[in-house]
Amino acid sequence: MKERIKVVVTGAAGQISYSLIPRLVDGHTFGDKIVDLELVEIPQVVDKLQGLIMELEDSNFPNMGNVNFTSDFESAAKDADWFLLVGSIPRGIVFNGKKIEERADLLQINGGIFVGQGQAIGKYGKSDAKILVVGNPANTNALIGRHAAGNDSQLWMAMTMLDSSRARSVLSKKLNVGIEDISKMIIWGNHSPTMYPDFENIISNGELGKNLIDDMNWVNNDFLPIVQQRGKAVIDSRGASSATSAAKAALDTVIACENPTKSGECFSAAVITDGSYNLPHGIVCGMPLMTTSEGSVEIVRDIVLSDFAKEKIKISTNELIEERSAVEDLLK
Ligand code: NAD
Ligand code: LMR
User: Fold this and answer.
1) What one-character DSSP code corresponds to residue 109?
2) 68 Ramachandran zone, left/alpha/beta (phi>0; psi -120 to 50)
3) What is the pLDDT of residues 3-59, one digit of tens each?
4) Cα separation, 330 vs 35, whole angstroms
5) 227 lines ligand 1 (CB under 6 A)
6) What does the pLDDT look like over 134-146, one tens digit per residue?
7) Which domains does the chain have, with CATH numbers?
């Protein structure tokens, strides 16, 4: 009998989910496992999910198990292995008469969602559940959810894989190498314009990034702003926030957590700080991670940071501390 895995996806009727959900059951992301899906939406749109389920059935995916849709998060959370928390409001839309321009504007609007969902995950999710927060502001939402869950055996992550993919794309062009020739693309800090994509610690064809890139003018005026502002550039062009690339990044994060990381490599996601790299305690911060052969996800602790990197990371962790202060009422 094939192993089964239960995956909860919130915001299931949204644009990221439309790219994400089919690929959870296509036999690639979770390998040979049968995937039971719990698709969660707000009551106003939950019935739309019937159409998505029809499409999933019509696609004949080999690894699709039971598929339920609901607006009751608690019932969906029971014994779930994975939670992909996409459901929340994106930037670029008008909400209560105001255009949402910055991710920080989303703090109060979206933060509240993660209190109730966090409590349900802590109570009903599997003790080794993995939770990936995609909804913005992802780091602080994950902090709120993790706090509400109060269950240290579960792993809360905020997604920075998309930033890492963007940075690899820019670096591959600069270095004139393939995407697969760039590894260890670490994103430090917040999933926001203060994030620090660590070009110095990438490995490309056996060489460290700091030995390959000495053009600090390009780093400061091209590389960093392009990666840091890519979300906005997509919104400005599409009139909607990135969706297919965000879905791919969520899948890449799941795959990175489900399979042991190759020796000497790492992947990017934000997790609760634990004193490593002298990062301030109690924030969800982008860091290098690895999955052990036993399946646990751990912080990689041997990355060497330059003074330039430390200075940039401090800007981002300061922003995370400010975000935490702004949602103090949700962290009681
Ligand atoms: P969308 O508006 O298309 O979909 C969001 C869906 O979430 C909607 O269908 C909405 O009804 C649903 N929703 C809202 N509150 C909910 C709740 N409490 N429970 C369940 N569902 C709920 O938006 P999208 O483009 O899919 O983006 C979703 C989020 O992902 C946004 O916050 C966006 O900013 C964020 N995002 C993050 C990254 C990243 O790299 N971390 C990248 C892209 C987008
Ligand atoms: C992104 O990085 O594309 C998303 O976080 C959307 C946004 O608001 O920038």
Assistant:
1) H
2) beta
3) 999 999 999 999 999 999 999 999 999 999 999 999 999 999 999 999 999 999 999
4) 33
5) no
6) 999 999 999 999 9
7) 4-158 (3.40.50.720), 161-328 (3.90.110.10)
- Residue type (1 letter), 154: Q
pLDDT digits (tens, 9 = 90+) for 59-107: 999 999 999 999 999 999 999 999 999 999 888 788 878 888 877 778 8
The residue whose CA has the least distance to atom 4 of ligand 1 is 14
pTM over 0.70: yes
In angstroms, rounded to a whole number, what is the distance separating the alpha carbons of residues 249 and 161?
5
Tokens (6 digits) for 31:
């390998």
Phi/psi at 213 (nearest 5 deg)? Answer: -120, 110
What is the residue with the minimal CA distance to atom 8 of ligand 2?
Answer: 91
Decide whether any atom of ligand 1 lies within 6 Å of the 145 Cβ.
no
The answer for residues whose C-beta is within 8 angstroms of residue 148's C-beta and 6 or more apart is: 114, 115, 116, 117, 118, 119, 122, 330
Pairing label, strands 34-40, 4-10: parallel
Q: How far, in Å, is the centroid of ligand 1 from the Cα of 120? A: 19
